Amino acid sequence: EALYPGAYMVSEEVPAGYYATGAVEVGFPLDAGEDEEIDFLNAELAAVNGTKWLDLNGDGQFNQGEEGLEGVTIRLLDSEGEIIATVVTADDGSYTFDGLEAGSYTVEEIVPEGYTATSPVSVSFDLAPGEIEVVDFHNAQTEVAAQVITPADEGQGSQQTLPVTGFELTYLLMLIVAAILLGMALTSFGLVKLTR
Questions:
Q1: Higher per-residue pLDDT: 154 or 42
Q2: What sign does the CA torsion over 39, 44, 45, 46 have?
Q3: How far apart are CA 151 and CA 173, in angstroms?
């Protein structure tokens, strides 16, 4: 289209799924008979996704039969270590950060209470335009240790560790009760003999 001499501005509308790698708006003067060529540069947006797995055998990798963990916090950090996005894993343990420009990133997980990490909790990588990086995390359930009590031995000043519940405590209580009953029986027997 023929244009009159003057000052003009050309701009682009960046299409979905892309980002501008140069100016999206360019102003320029146009003289009579002059042709001006303006180029715009776009790159495809990148993404990172993955799954938070329940690691049943603690080997730090996915195995058949293992399921994803829901509700776990995953954070995305930029090259300066600043948090730029946070998501929570879906019911199948999956998460996604999309719409990312090329650059250096880090993804980290917040290990939930009752679990321990069996793979790195923080992974750094470089994203190229249009690249999809996959980063999985693996956690195993932490075994709950038996609660114990340590009653003081008043005669010795030492301590003896006993389980709060379980066979050992039950057996010990049975012995104590049996000793008390035996003592009561012997005492009653002695009193009967004395009265005779």
A1: 42
A2: negative
A3: 14
